[in-house]
Structure formats: C-alpha cells, structure tokens
Design brief:
heterodimer; A: 195 residues; mainly alpha; B: 254 residues; 13 helices
Chain lengths: 195, 254
Amino acid sequence: MAPLGCTFMKEQRQPDEALMLLYQQGDQAAFETLYMRYKDMLYRYFVKHCSDKHQSEELYQDVWVKLINSAARYQPKAKFKTYLFTIAHNTLVDFYRKNKPAISLEDGTENMAEELLNNSDPVALPEDEFTLKQKTKKFMQALEELPAIQKEAIILHLEQELGVEEIATITKVKIETAKSRLRYAKNKLKTAIKN
Amino acid sequence: MSTQSQNDKVLAKLYKAGAKETPPPELDTKILNYATSKHKTKRTSSYFSGGWKVPLSLAASITVVFAIIMQIEQMPDQTEIPRIPASEPANNLPALVDELNEDTDSRFKPKDVLRTPERKEDQLAPLQSTGKYEAVNKREQISPQSRAIEEDSLMLENEMSQGVPAAGGLMRDRAMSTESLSTQTPKESSMQKQQDKFNVDQKFDTANLPVGDWLLLIETLIAKKDYAEARRQIDKFKIAHPKVNVEDLEAKIP
C-alpha cells in the first residue's frame, strides 16, 4: 500500500490543472484524484437544478464523459474548476432547451421590476442545532424557489466558492450581470432565513 | 469582518449543512471505468496511428530491401564464364581420337593415349610458357612462315599431349622441318593444318616416337586408308621395335 499511498498523497497536493495534464498523458490515478475532489460539488449542482434524481445522475455522468473525451485537447488556460463547471453549465443549458423550454439559463435580462432589497443587515449564525436545522430547511426551500439563473449563480458561489468573474465566465454573461444575479439570490435567501 | 462577508459565511454554512447529496457509488465506478478504458484505447491506438516509430521503421526496411534488389539487378552476371575462342587446329582432335578409340583390337594402345581428351584451355598456357617453341625455333632456325605454322602446331601439340601425343609429336617434328612449307591460300592452309594432325608426311621421322604414339599413328593412317604409308610405317616400326607384335595392324591393311 505504501507505494500507492505515496502516489496518492503526492497527487493530492497537486493542483487540478496538473492532475488533468497528467491524466492527459495517461495517468489514471490523477483522474481519480480529480474525480474525488469534484464529484460531490458537481452532483449537487445538478441535483439543485433538476427535481428528478435520475435526470440529475444522467447529466452528472454526461459532464464527466465529456471531460474524459476532451482530455486530449485540454489546455490549462483557466482554472480547472471553471473548465469543469463550464461544461456542466452547457450541459444544463442543453437540458433545459430540450426538456424545459420555459426555463432558460441563457436569459441575461433580469426582472428589473423586482425590488432590489438592499439587505445589509447581518444574519446571525444559528447557535443551536435545532435552529440550524430550521434555518437550513428554510434556506434550501428558498434556494429551490430561486430563478434558475440566480440559483446557478449562488450555487457556484456557495458550493464551488467561485468569484463573480468566474461565475460570469461560466455562465457567459457580463460581470455586472453575474454580480446582480448573486446579489438578488443572496437577498432572497437572507430574507428567507430571517423570517 | 464586514457584514457582507459575514452574511456570505452564514449562507455558505447553511448551504453546506443542507446540501449533502453525493453520487451513488455505482455511478462513480462507471465513470472511473470509462476513464480507464478511454485511456487504454488512446494508448493502443498511438502505437499504430499516432506513433511514428513503426511507420518510420517500416519505410526504412522497405527502402533498404528495394535498394538491395536494385543493386542485385544491376550487378553483372558473374555466373557466366567468358568464352575462350577455341583454336582451329584442335577442332577435329576429339573426333579423330574418338575414331581411334573405336578400334579396340590393338593391344598396344595405352590407356592414357587413347583416352578422349577433355580440352582444357588452361593447359595451353603452361606449355606455352615453357619456352619450348623458342628452343625449337632457335635450334632449327626456321623461317617466319614456318614459324606461324609451328605456332599452330605447338598449340595442337599442347592439346594433344593429353590424348594423342603421337600427333603432337609429329607436328613437332614437322615444325622442325622446313620441307612441309607450301604456298597455299589461307583457307587451304587451315584445311591442311587440320589434315596434318594425323596425316603423316613420308618425310617425317618417326624413329623417335614412343611406341604407343607410333602405333596410334599407324592406326590413323589405316583409318584414313593411306595403306601405303601405313605399310611403310609398319615396316619401319618392325625394324625399330622387333619385339612388338603388329600383326593386327597388318591384318587391317588390304
């Protein structure tokens, strides 16, 4: 186990881009490390957007297959995380286009009539577990009710810890658009957990 | 810590507390297996489609083989043996010797003499280089015309030394004498040369011939129906070699 463990530890320290390049050269273990890093994030990304679990798994699998198939052409021009979720975003857009045409992640126009809550009041951290559960439940319900474009933005921000610029790159919108989407999403979520 | 960042922290915590979905293990296995198979397919295909070593070595092998084949085709055929022009005087030698060999009644035919010679061109060279011709020429001081005939005779002598020494010896004797010269056309002289292989002039001195050669000469004369000369040679033979029985030869003379 020692040799494998040493290899595993060594690859754990390597950045995502290096691992992807290693896999490009034939290192299967590098891909496994990458997979373990992002499998949960990517899965939840689709679970939050799709009500059907089976559909979420299919979309999740499609993204990995696309990544594997394009490994030979991979170039570390951007972060691997950005690259991965760009593929995920495009896969989701295709899904919505085919199955849910009413929902679109490509709509860059915001509902300007909606009042932008300048909610700068601090949100307190739940002190006990019961409260945490209560707030978490409310939070998840509010998240579910968010428009798709806002939901995507907030998930990318909260789950993958991506910045506004990266979100804008993934969703192919302007930075200001990404910023406003995030702002709207946060305000709605804060309102939900406060109530 | 700013309010916004604090709010973000709370939201992040709440999200992580609520979002705990994970993909099923079978889905993980499926995806990892696909990644492995895709990697193996890539490696296998590179040997024959993407790699350069195999095609390059194949091309080099074909080029070398082709070059070798071209070189072999351009090489001269070394198996052909250059033909050495056969000398005219020796043309009839095997035929005449065969005629002699057909007569098996003679008891005095040494095996070596009557053996059909297999002309070997290289045998001329050693004999020619012995200087025999020069010694004869100097000794007898023959004229240039006779010298030409003598050269042909010498060649004949060398060839006949393997099978018919008698004729060669006679030719040597003839070369020593200038009385055989005659004005003939080239064609007639060549024909005469062929005849002279076994056609003995009465003026030839056969006293010094070996017994076998002399007997062979007599048989040749009988075969050519030169009975007069044959009789004369028999008489001379009896005088020279009284102990040798030549009745068989005499019987052949009508």
